[in-house]
Design brief:
With 575 residues, the protein is of the alpha/beta class. It folds into three domains: 123 residues, PtsI, HPr-binding domain (Enzyme I, Chain A, domain 2, Orthogonal Bundle); 99 residues, Phosphohistidine domain (Glucose Oxidase, domain 1, 3-Layer(bba) Sandwich); 282 residues, TIM Barrel, CATH 3.20.20. Helix content is 47%, strand content 14%. The chain contains 24 helices and 16 strands. The chain has an eight-stranded mixed sheet with strand order 1-8-7-3-4-5-6-2. An eight-stranded parallel sheet has the order 15-14-13-12-11-10-9-16. α1 runs antiparallel to α4. The chain is globular and about 70 Å long. The protein binds phosphoenolpyruvate (PEP) and magnesium ion. Phosphoenolpyruvate (PEP) binds next to β10 and α19. Magnesium ion (MG) binds next to α19.
Amino acid sequence: MTFTIHGIGVSGGIAIGHAHLVSRAKLEAAHYSVPPHQIAEESARFDAAIRAVRAEFEELRTNVPATAPAEFAAFINLHLTILDDSTLSAVPRSIIETEQCNAEWALKVQMDALLARFDEIEDDYLRERKADVIQVVERIMKRLTGQPGYIPPPPTNGEHSLILVAHDLSPADVVQFKRHRFASFITDLGGATSHTAVVARSLNIPSIVALHYARQLIRENELIIVDGTQGVVIVDPDRQALGEYRLRQHQFDIERRKLKRLKDTRPVTLDGVAVELQANIELPGDVAAARENGAMGIGLFRTEFLFLRRDGLPDEDEQFEAYRNVAQNMDGLPVTIRTYDLGADKHAEDSQPITVNPALGLRAIRLCLTEPQRFLTQLRAMLRASRYGKIRILIPMLMNAAEADQALQLIRQAKASLDDEGVPYDPDVEVGGMIEVPAAALALDMFTKKLDFLSIGTNDLIQYTLAVDRTDDTVAHLYDPLHPAVLGLLAHVFRTANKRGIPVALCGEMAGDVALTRLLLALGLRQYSMHAAHLLDVKQHILKSNLAEIRPLAAKMLRTTDSRKLRALLDRINA
Ligand code: PEP
Ligand code: MG
C-alpha cells in the first residue's frame, strides 16, 4: 500500500530504490534473512559473542586497574548480571530462530524492546540502568561485527539504488558513505544543519531527516522514492507515481548537467562586483568534486573527520599527508584548514561525550586547548604541508581573546619546534578565526587585530543565537536564518570587518542556500564557502544579480522585525 512520510529535506534531488534498514548510530545493525540451514550457525555466533563479552568482564573483574574508582567492581558485576539475564543472553537467540534473521538484528530488536520497558519504569535509579543495558549491548554488538557502530557495506549488486533507512546517524556514519555509496539516506531524527545533514549535502545524494517513524514503517527491501527537495518519502509507490518521479529525476539531472557549463565562468554580478566561491570539504577525496565544480579554493576543511571512525588518532605524518594532498591538488589556490572541531556531535573513538550539554561544553578550540599535545601535532602537520600550497589555518568556535592568544602561541610553538628540527614551512601562513558564537560576533574587535581573516560559521552562530540545538529535530522549525537577530549579527560582522580591513568569509550552510545568495551579497558578503554540490547553482544566482538593486531591500530587511515582511522582502530580492 502506498503512503508518504514527511520530514526535513537536507539534500535535494530524487532517489528511487530499495530500503536498507539500519538502527541507532552507535548500534548499527543491518537486517538480513538467514536461510534455515544456517540458523544453528547464526545462533552459535550469537552465543560465542556472549561468551566473549563474559570473558572480557571476568578478566576486568579479576584485574581491576589500580586507578579504577571504588565502584568499578560493582559496575562490572552489574554488567555481568545484565549480560547473563536471559532477556539478553537467550531471547535474541529465539528471535534468530523465529524470524530467521541475523544475530545483530535480533539483538537490536530485543534491546529496543528492553529499552522501551525501561522508559515506563518510574523508579529513577532503575530507569537510569538503561544506559548500562546499552553499554552491554554495545559490547556484544562489537563482538558480532568486529567494531563498534559498524554499518555493514551494502551488497555490491545494485548498491547504487539502495536507500539507507535509519533511526539516527552520526556524522561519522555518514562520512562512511563516501566509501560505500547509497542512493540516498533518510533518518527519523536530526536537524537541517546537524553535522549529519551537513555531510549529507557533501555527498550530493538526496536525503531527509526528522521523519520520526520511517524506520518503523518501512520494511527491508521495500521500494521507496526519496524527494530530498520536498522532504517527502513515498513508500511502495504505484506505477503512476514511479513514472512521474522518474521524469522529475531525469529533469533534475538535466538541470545539473546544464550548470556544469558555468564551471570556468568568473562569478561577477551584473553590475561588476566580483565574489569568491570556495568549497567546504571533509576529506581529501572531496577535492575532486570541488575542482569539478570550479571552486576557487577550499574555504573550510573540516579536519575532525580524519579523526572519526578509526582506532587511535591520526599521527602527524598521516595528517601531513592529508593536508599536503589537498594543498597540492588545489594547485596553489587557497586551502583553509580548520583545526579539529571535535566535541558536540563529533567524537573521536577514544573520547565519548561526558556532558549533557555538549554543544556548550568542551568543543572545538576549547578541547584543543585542553589537549595541547594533540593540537600541536595537528598544527605541525598543517605547517609542514604549507610548503605545498597556500594553506591557511582556521580556529573554530572562538569566544574570547584569550583563546585566540593561546592558539596563536601554540602555532608559534609548533613553528619553533619545526625550526629546531630544520623542517621547512611557510612562515607567513595566515591564521583566521571562526565567528560562530554570538559573543565573538558582537565583540568582533577582540579578534580583528590579532587574526588575518575571519569566517562566519552560521550553523553554530544560529544555533547559539537562537538557543536552538541544530541536531534536535523537535526544535528544527525554530531554526531561522532570517531571524532579525541573526541578520543583525551578520550585518554587524560584515560592516566591522570591512571597516577594519580584515577579510571575512561565510562557510555555514547559509552560503550554499541559493534562496539566501543575494541577501548575503547585499549584506556585504564577498567570499562564500559551501559544499561543492552548490557552487554552480550559487554562481548562477550571482551572475544574475544586480547589487545596486538589491542593496536597499537588504537594508530594509535589517530594519524589519516582522517575519512575514522579512519573507516578502526576501522574495523581492530574489525576484
Ligand atoms: C558552522 O558552524 O557554520 C560551520 C561551518 O562549522 P560546522 O558546521 O562544522 O560546525
Ligand atoms: Mg561550526
